[in-house]
Amino acid sequence: MYLGLISLLILLAISLNIAIAVESRRVHDKIYTSISGASCFRRLNGTHQTGCSSSQYGSTGALHLIQVVEDFEFLLRNPPAPPYAPMIPPHLFTRENIMRLKEQGTSSISAVLLIGGKEKVTQFSHELTCPNRYSGLLLSESNETATCDTRNPENAWNPWGSGLLHEDFPFPILYISDEDEVNKLKSCFEKFNNYDYEGHNTRSLCSVELQQFMVGAVSSEVCIRRTNFLNNLGSTKYCDPLEGSNVYATLYPRNIQPNAVNGQANETNITDEKEKFILITCRMDTASMFDNIALGAMDSLTGYVTLMSIASTLKQYLPSNSSNLTKKTNILFVIFNGESYDYIGSQRFVFDMENFDFPSASTQRAPITFENIELMIDIGVLDEISTINVHTLNKTDKAEEFVRVLNSQSQNFNINYQLNVGNNIPPTSAQSFLRKMKTFPAIILNSKPQNKYYHSIYDNAANLNFTYYNHTEQNYTKLISTEEALQLFPAESVQMKIRNASTSVALALTQILFNQGPKVKGYASPLLIDELLHCFLEAADCRLFKDISPVNSLPGPPFPPMRYISVLMSPQDASGWTYRLMGFLLSDEVDTPEEKCAPLPLQWIAGPKGVGECRHTTNNYTYALSPAFLIDNYDWKSGEYSTWTESTWTKLSARMFLRPSRVHEIVTLSIGIVVLIISFCLMYIISSRSEVLFEGATSSSDA
């Protein structure tokens, strides 16, 4: 009987706890409404911290909608109920306005919300006017760039840059693009905040709370030192180096070096001075102020797609065996990662070449050094493809010959290539090579800057005027004539413009290496370019990515891959897809069943037919981690190598709620204090009069 009663009481207690938990959840949901958006986060380098952070327990502020510049005055001139969280449309999210909030709103601004699309925006770039100004070629005895005019933005490589990406903000910033989320915030502001501004402190206000506390602080040097110190005691991390992977491939397979054995250091390997390469490079990464929103359509993807198109075209133009070339030179394609942050990928590539560590010993191939590179063609920003400048630091016969051949091969494509000699070279990967050797034979293909959304959330498909034509029934790797191409794409489409540029470069290289001309007729395929842009700008669940994946593999996500370099253990989708693409476009199909299609360099992929095919590939990865994190006792302030790190955080969240007025809070606190005092007084009276109040009761000691 007693056991049943006890069980019943336990069940009742459990039920009561569940009911209380459910009810408390309901109360929580009634109080708070979650907001989805992209957060600004903190990055650090050898001397500074940049980005945004909330306070440790979150930053709270009353909403205030900014519609015109004059609306900022209310927030900066003794507002009645601080702190506030202004909602700013993109056309007012300018350096002047945001820096005013930072410098003058220290006590009145706790958070900033960037809301809506770019309807009224004419320019929106948060990068510096001279990107990577401290890591390329520098002026003599100075840490200032020698390749960009920092005092004259009109002549800089990014004239529209605001530099906000490199500022440090004491408040969190959240970007909200979803129209429903924006309307929800505006409705709450209109209902509770948008009247009687002077009476804000007397009533409840619609507010937001942003949880974006960044653990890393001060600089990469301090952050790494703290992390290493605490790692001896625990597993706490304050920041992680920015790192990823470069991807490379050769047009022709390289011979195995007999004494290059797995695990053997490359310093003992012998370089083959007779092995020569033309190095063709670009970058795969981009950057923006907000987490996971960086498509880089114009700032890097056009160059990336151009290189892929060149690779695919050369694979078909040139003989299948390098011994048939007039000039016995292989082509090495390298796509660097992390170039947006002081050339992380190319700096590491140069560092490895200097130390005879490219490629790694595990590949069993001879190291490649500067002496093996006959010419470097670096594909930079191609904002306007009708006129492309060929930049070189020094006037050389190779550069002049290449420009002459380029122009002779581009007469049918309405492209004019102009040689530009001197220090005014764009911020591309070639600067890492030229900084080590100013006589290095590097040329850069780059157009005049026209991208007003460089390194921003709005450098997307619309900025590139890209439309996906979805010719799924066509063979996208086959070379086609101009007449065939114009039946599929308009002459002024971005697909045709990139096709023209990549074809002219491929024809020029073919003439240099193979005097007989292309072995097949036709030009670069705009179908391949169409698929590449679609996969990287609209959705990874695309035809091309399915073809280069293993048979029956899961489809890619319905959104494009992230191309921000990020940190170790984070998704590196762009590197993975680039690796597969290079393997597919530069490989040869071999007649081998799936069970025998191994090990590398043999790879089994689905192929265009979807039934599977074996490919003999030449692609591989190299590290894109700055040498600064490998060198013992590195001088973090030297500026020799990139020192960028990313702060860790515990939570990124945002929610909206109704914040009680200051009067309400004071009254509530006062009532609580009064109740507490009365409770203490009652307890004292009861305790001191217990003999009278509980006369005749049995004490615990008596029991």
TrEMBL record:
Signal peptide: 1-21
Main location: membrane
The keyword Nucleotide-binding belongs to this UniProt entry's keyword annotation: no
GO CC aspect terms: plasma membrane
GO biological processes: Notch receptor processing; Notch signaling pathway; protein processing
Pfam families given in the database record: Ncstrn_small (PF18266), Nicastrin (PF05450)
Family of this protein: Belongs to the nicastrin family.
Name used for this protein in its record: Nicastrin
Organism: Ceratitis capitata
